[in-house]
Amino acid sequence: MLKNVLILSTSLRKNSNSEAVASAFAKGARDAGHRVQEISLRGKNIGFCKGCLVCQKTGSCVIQDDAVEIAQRMQDADVLVFATPIYYYEMSGQMKTLLDRVNSLYGSDYRFKEIYFLSTAAEDEKGVDSRAIGGLEGWIACFERARLSGSVFAGGVNEAGEIEGHQALRDAYHMGSKV
């Protein structure tokens, strides 16, 4: 079955390691015949949620910035993929800000059921990504038809491009090809 896959790369660094993992996932999903759209938060204007909850009544945020269009694309996707660097054992601040800003999806007729998490970090210990996964699972818990379908972590990568040749690139490609 052909799926619409939306990949959200949340690193603001050009040629980032998490963006490379996202690209590998995208290639796998495309090779499997799915429609894939990649959105980078780099250069996007995404303000903080005001907590006004108007979006729950109107289905759209009162803040008119790039998060409104991203939320619409998320609503229309069958598969969501989040790629983030791990900072202080958590998802990037810009990823968390985006999750807060797409509050309009709660209670909407969203299509996504499968959600994947891709992350990178300088540290290479087991569990480095566990808090970030837990944070994403908290968001997913608000969407009863959705589930975390898989994750890939690339540890030991710090400088831009340092991920070249890393096993996580192959793992992300394989995961993308099995969507």
Proportion of residues in helical segments: 25-40%
Q: What is the averaged pLDDT score?
A: 97
Largest sheet: 5 strands, parallel
First-last Cα distance? 10 Å
Determine the CATH topology. Answer: Rossmann fold
Q: Evaluate the radius of gyration.
A: 15 Å
Q: Would you report the number of β strands?
A: 5
What CATH architecture would you give? 3-Layer(aba) Sandwich
Structural class: alpha/beta
Please tell me the total number of domains: 1
What is the class in the CATH system? Alpha Beta
InterPro entries: Flavoprotein-like_sf (IPR029039), FMN_Rdtase-like_dom (IPR005025), ISF_SsuE-like (IPR051796)
EC number: 1.7.-.-
Protein name: Flavin reductase
Keywords: Flavoprotein, FMN, Oxidoreductase
A few lines on this structure:
This protein is α/β, with parallel strands linked by helices and 179 residues long.
Describe this structure in words.
It comes from [Clostridium] methylpentosum DSM 5476. It is an enzyme of class 1 (oxidoreductase). Residues 4-127 form the NADPH-dependent FMN reductase-like domain. The protein has 179 residues and is an alpha/beta fold. The chain contains six helices and five strands; from the N terminus they run βαβααβαβαβα. It has helices at 17-31, 54-58, 66-76, 93-101, 130-140, 167-177, and strands at residues 4-9, 35-40, 79-85, 114-121, 147-155. The chain has a five-stranded parallel β-sheet, sandwiched between helices. The longest helix is centred in the first third of the chain and has 15 residues, at 17-31. The radius of gyration is 15 Å and the shape is globular.
